[in-house]
Design brief:
single chain; 4 helices
Length: about 110
């Protein structure tokens, strides 16, 4: 849909958006505390509130791939449990299998592809 001033307007059932020059205007409902935090940051940094939100989301996304302390502790506990478990195969058998794997990899690396 095109607005009277030439902007492309997209409508969704739960948010409204206006698109222009690589930007999308989106309407969200935020609690008062979050809005106040955005305003304080924008004032302190001397940046527009929308830039503060964009940069915050970008930083949050970058950190979201990292494990939380709880996830890290859970995974370390699993590794500890595995390390304490008795071996299921003799060491000689494991070493022989590793030699076979390494030899197969060397053959594959040398073969014409």
């Amino acid at each position: 849909m095109m607005s009277a001033d030439g902007r492309v307007v997209k409508w969704a059932s739960h948010i409204s958006m206006v698109v222009w020059q690589g930007m999308v205007k989106v309407t969200f409902t935020l609690d008062d505390e979050t809005v106040e935090r955005i305003r304080r940051l924008a004032t302190r940094l001397g940046r527009p509130q929308s830039q503060v939100v964009r940069e915050s989301i970008k930083e949050y996304e970058a950190r979201s791939d990292k494990l939380t302390d709880e996830e890290r502790q859970r995974l370390l506990a699993v590794v500890d449990r595995i390390m304490k478990a008795p071996p299921t195969r003799p060491q000689a058998e494991v070493n022989a299998e590793l030699r076979e794997i390494r030899a197969a990899r060397r053959r594959w690396a040398r073969s014409p592809r």
